[in-house]
Design brief:
343 residues; single chain; TIM Barrel; Aldolase_I_AS; EC 4.1.2.13; fructose-bisphosphate aldolase activity; binds 1,3-dihydroxyacetonephosphate; 8-stranded parallel β-barrel; two-stranded antiparallel sheet
């Protein structure tokens, strides 16, 4: 008998914990390793992920779930233990990225649609057997003068809903991720334009989820924050980001959704933490609000590691620090003082 989706989602949304996105595709992890001059081999990717998953304090106290990549969910640690078993031993729920990437959309210049639905039922069943209890699918929505269009928003929302329905059928909690990106080719949009596009994207996604019979109680939303594009000359204050993000989410996300876990999207480590903390400090939110960061949880650790075995402990300390800061943010109690302490 499989666990109830609601119980899995509740375990992923435990107080003061959040999700580690360690599901970089082979192309993306190569880019991350390039920054430290490391060749991306299967063993290097394994060593790096093993380092994270063996960070006992971070994994036990601050991380409730980990999103894995297809290669990683099948990998074994250097001593032969499956990486999934390392995760389970820390109490973290294993998850899996199942989309096959955002591809240029036909007859829609500058827009992308995420692929991966063909054969997804069979892949989900296999991943369930490998231990996955949640999944992730990311849609990419880029802002420019002419995009997004309803055509692309609707196609992406429809794919997210078909993915989410297949997940729930397989006993897997879907993380539904429509990412309005802040660091795309233009990236000069204002925070208010981001608000409007995020609102439009979320309304479209929840309409499609409803039509597809997806149970909102058994899913998690992974949205962007409402924030100006990276190249916009006017950057909003942290308070404005927090306030506009919460306003937008309250307007679009039904309270039946148990949790919202943000992506970091290119924000600095500290901004991603501060914004989340400010939102939780507001109180009175109808859902749990936490993190599902990739870059903002890992950047410092990758840098400290540098691909060298003698730096593993330093990398684990860096990762644990970021995880603890984000745990405080999930409780709304992060402060700059905490950040400097033991940094
Ligand atoms: P970032 O936090 O680096 O944006 O990654 C999160 C993620 O999983 C994107 O799909």
């Amino acid at each position: 008998m499989s666990e109830r989706l609601e119980d899995i989602a509740a375990a992923m949304m435990r107080d003061g914990q959040g999700i580690l996105a360690a599901d970089e595709s082979s192309g993306t992890i190569k880019k991350r390793f390039d920054t430290i001059g490391l060749t991306s081999t299967e063993d290097a990717r394994r060593d790096y992920r093993e380092l994270l998953f063996r960070s006992t304090e971070a994994m036990t106290d601050y991380i409730s779930g980990v999103i894995l990549y297809d290669e990683t969910i099948r990998q074994k640690a250097a001593d032969g233990t499956p990486l999934v078993d390392l995760l389970k031993a820390t109490g973290s729920v294993p998850g899996i990225k199942v989309d096959m990437g955002a591809k240029p959309m036909a007859l829609a210049p500058g827009e992308k649609v995420t692929e991966g639905l063909d054969g997804l039922r069979e892949r989900l069943n296999e991943y369930y057997g490998l231990g996955a209890r949640f999944a992730k699918w990311r849609a990419v929505i880029d802002i420019s003068a002419t995009t997004p269009t309803y055509n692309a928003l609707k196609a992406n929302a429809h794919a997210l809903a078909r993915y989410a329905a297949l997940c729930q059928e397989a006993g897997i909690v879907p993380i539904v991720e429509p990412e309005v990106i802040m660091d795309g080719p233009d990236a000069d949009h204002t925070i208010d334009r981001c608000y409007d596009v995020t609102e439009w994207a979320l309304k479209t996604v929840f309409e499609e989820l409803y039509v597809a019979n997806v149970s909102l109680e058994g899913m998690i939303l992974k949205p962007n924050m409402v924030i100006a594009g990276q190249k916009c000359p006017t950057q909003a204050s942290a308070e404005e980001v927090a306030e506009k993000t919460v306003k937008c989410l309250k307007a679009c996300v039904p309270s039946a959704v148990p949790g919202i876990a943000f992506l970091s999207g290119g924000q600095s480590d500290e901004d991603a933490t501060k914004h989340l903390s400010l939102m939780n400090a507001m109180g009175g939110l109808p859902w749990k609000l936490t993190f599902s960061y990739g870059r903002a949880l890992q950047a410092a650790a990758i840098k400290a590691w540098g691909g060298k075995p003698e730096n593993v402990a330093a990398a684990q300390r860096a990762f644990t620090h970021r995880a603890r800061m984000n745990s405080l943010a999930a409780l709304g109690t992060w402060s700059a003082d905490e950040e400097r302490k033991a940094a």
